[in-house]
């Protein structure tokens, strides 16, 4: 399975961001990619205007996603957009497109009410566990940004058959934050013997630092803080080897995690 990591700085208007996404899709197609993962919040972002997220939210049949649907023929495209909840807030929605159709959707469960930020002020939480879908011959599970701090979600996906975890993010800079990002991304891969594809938005607020981690916790691709399109190949042989020599999913003594009542 060949993957592309489309790291970029999200602009304040959706037309600019759509153009950037379409360029990344076309470049990924030329490289024969099965899946392109984009960052979190790719509709619009402005660090000087925190209200921009609900103001610019669009439905999944709006013009931003329509453009990506048309471009997604022959490739899977994943990322996060803000979708109105009908009550003045929005759902942070992780989508996977393939051949013009949504094959998976997930509303972010864990909202970033930490480090002096309050995502829940404008965002409505999801109430359902994310799906696992087939892409490029592998089973792929969905997570979003802050979810990486909650190992129960990654374990749930692994027990549902996930071999790859997708993690679009907009990881905010701060003391030791890059270290947190790396440690937890590696831990979720290693403790579940899954690949993790993590793509972070870059720019003045967020760190970028997109990466691919293999099922034994080896970082096989690490990007910096500038806009870039990176590529990696995920191997069934490596996955099978990891699960043979480190059978943590078989050896565990705990029951499967469950979602608490909302």
TrEMBL record:
<comment type="similarity">
    <text>Belongs to the carbon-nitrogen hydrolase superfamily. NIT1/NIT2 family.</text>
</comment>
<dbReference type="InterPro" id="IPR003010">
    <property type="entry name" value="C-N_Hydrolase"/>
</dbReference>
<dbReference type="InterPro" id="IPR001110">
    <property type="entry name" value="UPF0012_CS"/>
</dbReference>
<dbReference type="InterPro" id="IPR036526">
    <property type="entry name" value="C-N_Hydrolase_sf"/>
</dbReference>
<dbReference type="GO" id="GO:0016787">
    <property type="term" value="F:hydrolase activity"/>
</dbReference>
<feature type="domain" description="CN hydrolase">
    <location>
        <begin position="1"/>
        <end position="241"/>
    </location>
</feature>
<dbReference type="InterPro" id="IPR047999">
    <property type="entry name" value="De_GSH_amidase"/>
</dbReference>
<keyword id="KW-0378">Hydrolase</keyword>
<dbReference type="Pfam" id="PF00795">
    <property type="entry name" value="CN_hydrolase"/>
</dbReference>
<protein>
    <submittedName>
        <fullName>Hydrolase</fullName>
    </submittedName>
</protein>
